[in-house]
Amino acid sequence: MDKVVKTRRRGPRTFDRDQAIDIAMRLFWRHGYEGVSLNDLTAAIGIAPPSLYSAFGSKAGLYREALDRYLGLPRALQNIKATATLQETVEAMLHKAIDAVTDPAAERGCMISSGMIQCGPDHAELARELAERRNQMRDMIAETLGRWLDRERAVSLARYLVAVLQGLSIQARDGASRQELRQVSNEVIAGVKARGFS
């Protein structure tokens, strides 16, 4: 059940907490953490700053909840099922990732892959948390690849694929089409095949 937060500023007022997180997620996804001000958030959600602080503690607290709400690329990777060959699995992984970062019903790119790559020192802790989320994606990919590869090779290939996914995310944000990104993935798959991963 959605939580409704009640606040008092010139009379009773309520807002839908879940909806507020969704709105914030879209803003952070589109503009990045530092590109969204407190005024942007309160105006979009329709609440006063004290209400935001009461509900989420801080802008950073709301950002963390928005990251938890974000599905996008992580969900696409979680839904990858090992296929008959490693190449087929890598291909499915890249295609699902491309579909996620070019979804016309969502913002372009991946909120985690391209989030807070650069930030001011005041936000270093948030940047570290986001880097850890990217590391978790890498570990998830390595675990999937472990069906065919030993641990060292699986981690090495997973690190490479995460770098590719970050590049796909940035190119998607820059306006690359799904077809153009598929051309990139075809080159990656050819490279995996040429290196003898099978």
| Overall CATH architecture of the largest domain | Orthogonal Bundle
Count of the domains: 2
**Overall average residue pLDDT:** 86
- From the spread of the alpha carbons, the general shape counts as elongated
Q: What structural category do the secondary elements indicate?
A: mainly alpha
CATH class of the largest domain: Mainly Alpha
Kindly identify the CATH topology of the largest domain.
Answer: Tetracycline Repressor, domain 2
Number of E-state strands: 2
Query: What spatial order of strands do you see in the largest sheet?
Result: 1-2
- The percent of residues in helical segments reads 55-70%
C-alpha Rg (nearest Å): 19 Å
Unreliable sequence segments: 4-12
Largest sheet: 2 strands, antiparallel
What is the N-to-C succession of helices and strands? EEHHHHHHHHH
Number of helices: 9
Would you kindly provide a brief summary of this structure?
The protein has 198 residues and is mainly α. It is 64% helix and 5% strand.
List keywords for this structure.
Arc Repressor Mutant, subunit A, 2 domains, 198 residues, 64% helix, single chain, Tetracycline Repressor, domain 2, 2 strands, mainly alpha
How does this structure look, described?
The chain has 198 residues and is mainly alpha-helical. The protein folds into two domains: 17-68, Orthogonal Bundle (Arc Repressor Mutant, subunit A), CATH 1.10.10; 71-195, Tetracycline Repressor, domain 2, CATH 1.10.357. The protein has nine helices and two strands. It has a two-stranded antiparallel sheet with strand order 1-2. The model is unreliable at 4-12 (pLDDT under 50).
